[in-house]
């Protein structure tokens, strides 16, 4: 890769006939259009490209006119900020008019449309996100982003404090992009600016904060980024629950995940750095406005006690029947990762890792058995609905669980009959 980089051979998606037709339509009559941002960055790095955004000199109304004339559907998803979504060949492309900020308040910006590519690049956050690509794959780099990609270096464009004051979310984005694309130590000026301005994070919506944290925790290895976040005081600012708990377990969890083929799981990684306290997890979920599923998962994990590595499958099955299977899966995964980390110098930990691995495999395959007796079976024996019937049913289920789910229906019915006579 060089300062005169090209996407040639790196971006099959660029040859898509619908994308090329859209770029051609937007460029006619002296206008210009280029692929912008993350798609260019990821193609140069060699990572998958999900969304393809386009920057253009055409104003939104003209973008709509040209795209529809070319046979594409348009949706004015952010027309006040210059963004039109164009559906071309079944794929969405966000086309945004070149812009310059005229007013910012730390959360959002008022913009004016323009035709200056350098001004458009300089209003973006990081150099690696401010790259453009022509339709033929030629990369246009106006801020030194190609060199930073080569060095796996994350830098704010221009003055770091100025970029952050435009939108305080850029503090979290600094660590998120460092987790995904950075190497070595974070840029010193960027790190200092994030530390100095961290109080501005309180001005952000909970949804934006959790969205960035979730993306950061989904990185292949977020451990270094989390370490620097803690050093800068940023982690405590957005996740105070981690302050006296720590992030030491993250590295071992990431390594275990890679070795064992686990998908990157941001909620499991969150569980690794916060205390298993149901009350505090409820507060965390409400503060960050987690989804109902995410908040419930945290709560169930916090209420579940991790099993000992030596328990038998039968004993674990009894715990699973009376508890929450997903809570146990999370607990066992974290315990397994911790044991694997200690196993380097601890024979007992090595044995524990083997035990937790066995228990995890069992838990993942376990299906909750169905108790073979119902209340209707007891009423058929002459029992009247009421406390005695309920207590009898509960006692029978307890015996069935303690037997390792081996007591058959016939045996249970005989015991029910005897119990109802007393």
Notes on the protein architecture:
By secondary structure, the protein is α+β, with helices and mostly antiparallel strands. It has 21 helices and nine strands. The protein has helices at residues 17-27, 38-45, 60-69, 117-122, 145-150, 160-166, 169-181, 188-196, 206-217, 223-232, 234-238, 249-260, 266-271, 278-288, 292-303, 313-322, 325-342, 347-365, 375-380, 387-402, 409-421; strands at residues 33-36, 52-56, 73-78, 83-88, 91-97, 99-104, 109-113, 131-133, 139-141. The strands form two sheets. The protein has a seven-stranded mixed beta sheet with strand order 3-4-5-2-1-8-9. It has a two-stranded antiparallel sheet with strand order 6-7. Strand 4 (83-88) and strand 5 form a beta hairpin. The longest helix is centred in the last third of the chain and has 19 residues, at 347-365. The termini are far apart.
Task: Write a brief structural summary.
Its cofactor is Mg(2+). The chain is 52% helix and 11% strand. With 422 residues, it is an alpha+beta fold.
Order of helices and strands: HEHEHEEEEEHEEHHHHHHHHHHHHHHHHH
Q: Measure the end-to-end span.
A: 85 Å
- Overall form: elongated
Tell me the fraction of residues in β-strands, as a range: 5-15%
Structural class: alpha+beta
What do the pLDDT scores average to? 93
List low-confidence stretches. none
**Rounded radius of gyration (Å):** 28 Å
Count all strands and give the number: 9
Number of helices: 21
Give the spatial strand order of the biggest sheet. 3-4-5-2-1-8-9
Largest sheet: 7 strands, mixed
User: Could you estimate the helical fraction of the residues in percent?
Assistant: 40-55%
